[in-house]
Design a protein that fits this description.
about 80 residues, mainly alpha, 3 helices
């Protein structure tokens, strides 16, 4: 997960600098696409870090883990009926 986050943030930084350079030189469409891509890769990096944080902490449940735990408990209670 750490590698995914590092790569995603690196690509986001490159896309951000490329987008600003393209927009500054007059290519607004290409700059906008690059900036949107930078935002997407930044989001992927944040999601990867959140998943890593959830895996490393004990007794910590992120929203996704809580949903899975509640679903597991509901399935377990239905089997006991």
């Amino acid at each position: 997960m750490t590698g995914v986050a590092v790569i995603a943030f690196a690509v986001a930084g490159i896309a951000l600098s490329l987008g600003v350079d393209m927009a500054g030189s007059g290519d607004l469409a290409g700059g906008a696409v690059s900036l949107i891509g930078a935002g997407g890769f930044g989001w992927i990096g944040l999601v990867a870090l959140d998943e890593l944080d959830c895996q490393l902490r004990e007794n910590h449940e992120c929203r996704r883990c809580r949903k899975e735990t509640n679903r597991w408990r509901a399935d377990e209670s239905e089997e006991g009926r």
